[in-house]
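Structure (tokenized):
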């Protein structure tokens, strides 16, 4: 893509006697930018997350619109929850004409480190209307224990 020039009229050597040449040059610059066929980067897909801590468990919720259960995996290891997969483009073949798209596609991986130990063997997950909910109980070792204090 060629970089538009502010100085088409030959400035600084010739302004053509036009007192408004600076404004016209700026207008041409913006017109050229709008006409340019510069590729626009498509953002990578990154699911939005929410982590809620309850007394005995954590609930991790992820927005995964347009995906099905087969498109992603959930893993629990130690105190880490990982969600990874791929959102594929729904287009088949080349689109005729031009299209504007703000949708994002591609592989994704979200890793959440929880603040306490969890019991991954008892974790469960559900997926409904594009929202994944992963429920992970806290381990017995991470639960608060009250210790009675006696007079000595």
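Design, position by position:
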């Amino acid at each position: 893509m060629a970089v538009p020039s502010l100085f088409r009229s030959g400035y600084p050597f010739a302004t053509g006697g036009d007192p408004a040449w600076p404004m016209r040059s700026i207008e041409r610059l913006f017109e050229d930018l709008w006409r340019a066929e510069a590729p626009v980067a498509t953002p990578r897909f990154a699911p939005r997350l929410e982590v809620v801590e309850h007394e005995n468990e954590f609930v991790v919720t992820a927005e995964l619109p347009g995906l099905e259960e087969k498109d992603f995996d959930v893993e629990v290891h130690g105190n880490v929850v990982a969600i990874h997969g791929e959102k594929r483009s729904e287009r088949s073949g080349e689109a005729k004409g031009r299209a504007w798209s703000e949708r994002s596609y591609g592989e994704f991986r979200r890793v959440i480190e929880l603040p306490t130990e969890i019991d991954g063997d008892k974790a469960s997950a559900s997926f409904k209307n594009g929202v994944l909910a992963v429920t992970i109980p806290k381990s017995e070792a991470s639960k608060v224990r009250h210790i009675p204090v006696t007079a000595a």
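Reviewer-requested clarification: DSSP finds one helix and seven strands in the chain. The longest strand covers residues 80-87.
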